[in-house]
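Entry 14. Ran structure prediction on the chain below.
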Amino acid sequence: MRNFHKLDMASTQWLTTHFLAKSASRIRSLSTLPIASGNKVLDLCCGPGLFMPYLLDLVGPSGHVTGLDHDPISLDDAHQRLRAQPHKNWDLRHGRLEESELDLADYNIVLLFNSIGYFSNPFEIIRYLAEKLNTGSLIIVKDFDLESFFFQPRDTSLWADLILSAKDKNDRENPVSFNNFLGRKVHTLHQAYKFREYKNETWTQLMTFPFNPFEKEYIWRNIECLINQAGDGCPSSAVDYFTNFFFPPEPTFFQCSDAMFVEVEYLTFLQL
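Output, structure tokens:
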């Protein structure tokens, strides 16, 4: 492949780029979450803590936010981000959920944002949480599905070749260790447990020409991930087309005055 380096899609660098590409809409969307002053929130798989300052605004000084992640590098970044907060009503924990000493009964709300695809059995992790949380608690899950990305201009036939190849590899061996096609299944997670009620919704992010640097990297890194995941199973015509269309140094897509990119994220609210 051309002039680009592979980026770890779970790295602090990528997660920060991802967040900044959508930062304006992120703040608006987060404000709609049913998180109130005084709530105790667990940000599960918090990464570099990008959501935590906004969650702290929602819970106020009488609430508390805990971030849990297994990556110490991400947690170091989160600590740097949070230490300037005016109130110390937050903490960071290192480890995996099943191995942690957290008492889930201490929390009103558990968030899994763009992370449930890392679990080998998403339904099992939802059931595990539901059995540990108190009645009245809320689990909020958000994730995306690369198949539901829409952008134009594009060659529809070659896009289908790329998606089908990546999905096939995802189902058989998943070389990127993340299910990039889980998003729409988030809306079925209520089947994991007998929840008192559940609600599904979507967040939509529109990016249009002229794209800022964060949007550009966000878009072409997702295409890169698809090509890496599709591997040798993808027709070379599709690989060549999207390589020339998106990757530096002269990506055609970002030079089109009518170019647009739309991402849909899927959310489910599971009430105990």
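The chain has one domain: 12-271. Will compare against last week's run tomorrow.
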